[in-house]
Amino acid sequence: MTGTTNAFEMAQRQFDHVAELLQLDPQVREILRWPMREYHFRIPVRMDDGTIRVFQGFRVQHNDARGPCKGGIRFHPAETIDTVRALATWMTWKCAVVDLPLGGGKGGVIVDPATLSEGEKERLARGYIQQIWRNIGPRQDVPAPDVGTNPQMMGWMMDEYSKLVGQYTPGVITGKPVGGGGSLGRTEATGFGVIYTVREALKHLNLEPSQCVAAIQGFGNVAQYAAVGFTEILGGKVVCVSYWDREDRTAYTVSKADGIDPRFLMSITDQYGTIDKNKARAAGYSIEDGNAWLSKEADVLIPAALEGQINADTVQHIHERVKLIAEGANGPTTPEADEAIRQRGIFLIPDFLCNAGGVTVSYFESVQNDMNFYWTKEEVLQRLDTKMTQAFHAVLDLSLKEGVFMRDAAYMVAINRVVKAMELRGWI
């Protein structure tokens, strides 16, 4: 969350707008506007120096009408309950829009993981599970990695849960390491999912991908594989990525007019997405201001960092050439910016459709855990492509039929599916 943007208020405003379009019953609105359950807990951790530090943890379960809650756990110094509520809400719509039999959940811990040793991270990860294990499970709520967490931490969490329940339970957590119950293709899933939807959008806009230029915000997992996918799958050119430099606490844009090499940049990036500026300069890259990605002359913008990045102020800087915005991040565009984007006629792939590749392959991981049989990477990515393509066209078709903005159409598809499940279960 950045500046004064309250992510949960934003999520509720987006929902309220579509509830009006759908003429949803006020009682149904009241159920869906708020999470069904929230857990707030304290996690005492013995640090390497022998002291005990207490961390604040959260787990929010927004709605489980369609199946077990699903959503990541973020370790972030600026984590708040409202951010977690918003992300849990968006997960409900995300799972529904891609037609997964899952609901929405999210977790968080207020911590900068970069300040912890490996041992401290492990004790915090296990401590999180010790506080919440009674309220999660393969048929209840399935966490996954998110900002500040990684597959190794998920492995520790799964192990801790298995110890507490007394049996090996790989399906309690997804995003685990391959070889420890994880799925092949999970690393690439979110970024490649973004690109599969971009490919379909470019077809709809009659644009040739190999002639298109993209500018990307972020260089974490999603942005890295979105950059790889845009260049290697679509044959297009990426002119820049941006990143947050942990050392000088500043955002930078790394650009190259004739196109970046995402694989090279990945080779000089640490696990938190910080690019080595000196090595980038030596290879002919320019280092610019952190917001420079937004005003690049590009056909496609892919915000793949944090919430609220395209807002009433920054939307004015988007280059006139831009025809498509693909939201790789959760909630990168505020409602005020949405209105400006709509007026300019820029095609937008909304976040909970665009970045649903991660949760889709997480679902595939759960299925593989249940079967105790694992697919090849090609099988995983092929199934992901099919799922994302079907979801994109379901939303596009409704958008064209009803004459509504793509974000509204995605919400309409998702909310209708959740309400239908609530009706079938007799909740309403």
TrEMBL record:
Keywords: NAD, Nucleotide-binding, Oxidoreductase. Belongs to the Glu/Leu/Phe/Val dehydrogenases family. This is Glutamate dehydrogenase. Signal peptide: none annotated. It comes from Thermanaerothrix daxensis. The keyword NAD applies. Residues 183-426 form the Glutamate/phenylalanine/leucine/valine/L-tryptophan dehydrogenase C-terminal domain. It holds the Pfam family ELFV_dehydrog_N. Substrate binds at residues 70, 94, 362. The lineage of its organism: Bacteria, Bacillati, Chloroflexota, Anaerolineae, Anaerolineales. The active site is at residue 106. SMART domains: ELFV_dehydrog. InterPro entries: Aminoacid_DH-like_N_sf (IPR046346), Glu/Leu/Phe/Val/Trp_DH (IPR006095), Glu/Leu/Phe/Val/Trp_DH_C (IPR006096), Glu/Leu/Phe/Val/Trp_DH_dimer (IPR006097), Glu/Leu/Phe/Val_DH_AS (IPR033524), Glu_DH (IPR014362), NAD(P)-bd_dom_sf (IPR036291), NAD_bind_Glu_DH (IPR033922). Gene3D superfamilies: Leucine Dehydrogenase, chain A, domain 1, NAD(P)-binding Rossmann-like Domain. GO terms for molecular function: glutamate dehydrogenase (NAD+) activity; nucleotide binding. NAD(+) binds at residues 190, 221. GO terms for biological process: L-glutamate catabolic process. CDD domains: NAD_bind_1_Glu_DH. The keyword Oxidoreductase applies. The record marks 146 as: Important for catalysis. PROSITE patterns: GLFV_DEHYDROGENASE (PS00074).
